[in-house]
Amino acid sequence: MDDAPNMTIKIFLPDEIELLEGNLVWNGDLKKDEKIEHKISIKVVKEGEKRIRA
Prior knowledge:
- By secondary structure, this protein is mainly β.
- It has strands at about 5-10, 15-20, 25-30, 40-45.
- The strands form 2 sheets. The protein has a two-stranded antiparallel sheet with strand order 1-3. Strands 2-4 form a two-stranded antiparallel sheet.
């Protein structure tokens, strides 16, 4: 991957998962081979197998 200026990452939660803390969107510049960490806190409000997408 090359540098990715003005990158946007969005996290999509199913209805059964609530965001408790943090932001579901990250914007910034990524350099080649750079790693980022984006933390959120969630709560599962209904049992089952769900998928979180980004």
